Amino acid sequence: MLQPFSEYIKIIGKGQKGGRSLTRDEAYHAMKMVLANEVTGDQRGAFLMLLRTREETPEEVIGFVDACRELIEPEVKTLTPTLDIGCYAGKRRQLPWYLLAVAVLANNGYSVMLHGAHEPGSGRLYASIALPQLGLPEVSSIADAKQQLMDKGVTYLDLSSLLPALDTIIKLREVFGLRSCANTLARLLNPTAAQFCVQGVYHMHLDHKHCRVNENYPSIDALCFRGDGGDPEVNGERETELFITRNGETEEVIMPVVADKWALKDKDMNVNDMLDVWAGNANSLYGEQAILSTLASYLVLLQKCDVADALSQARQLWAQRDKSATPF
After folding, report:
1. Residue 104: half-sphere exposure toward Cβ, Cα within 13 Å
2. CA-to-CA dists, residue 223 to 55, 101, 168, 197, 253, angstroms
3. Beta strand 112-116 with 83-87: parallel, antiparallel or unpaired?
4. Deepest of 12, 129, 150, 281, by most Cβ within 10 A of its Cβ?
5. DSSP string, 49-61
6. What's the CATH number where 109 sits?
7. How much is the pTM?
8. CB environment 209-227: b (16+ within 10 A), e (fewer)
9. Domain span at 22
């Protein structure tokens, strides 16, 4: 059982001259063995860190994603959201204002599936922590998620409920001191096979890699961009390249600067500040421009409209929100 996997380690680990990247088929079988726990801990660590050292190719990521999706329980596919959003980075400089953009969508007839994970000791504020305070209680079963999606138009499921084996790999950061390809795979997972999905990334050129992967799944319309801290949040303090993939082809759209000036780092990271802004009782220099820019980017994906129209709609929808109720 263990010998075949050592061949995959040899393929990527022989060095600059002797090694090569995995084919899509090899990557699929290798990741399937990792997720099925058919490798030793040493083998898993060596494989993941060798990939980390030279970075995964789009072809390898596609094979890994194929393996991940195959292992998702069929019951998950009974959830039928319009939009899938992975929330895996966690915020460390600003609050997760993109969640209020999601709330606006949910309150206007869009059904949204959120999923994410958290890394122990990261010091980041994850969506799973903020959402209950914003009015979306935690659920841990597919049945409860389905009911929540019907009642509120949005649900959040932790990766530990969707694909526990991948969640285990993400949490190995505490052991390695480094993230692995699992963080990329989780963002690309789209576990319910929703028609539309959003992927926020952090590092330069990762958005290009995501595009190459998204192009291999033409039935899904995908939006990828370098979000604040790596989460699916557009920072309106700078231009953001939105990469939208439809029918296997990617186009680039520029979300312009909408902020008048730069905001300082949020020292408190208090979710109650988000509730105050939603209720109209307070202003946030960073938060409100992030909500509008993020909401507009989602609308560009969902409605196939141009940026100017999306920004206009975002401002209108934000102004019309129900300030007397909680966001979710």
Report:
1. 25
2. 22, 15, 26, 6, 10
3. parallel
4. 12
5. HHHHHH---HHHH
6. 3.40.1030.10
7. 0.95
8. bbbebbbbbeebbbbbbbb
9. 5-71
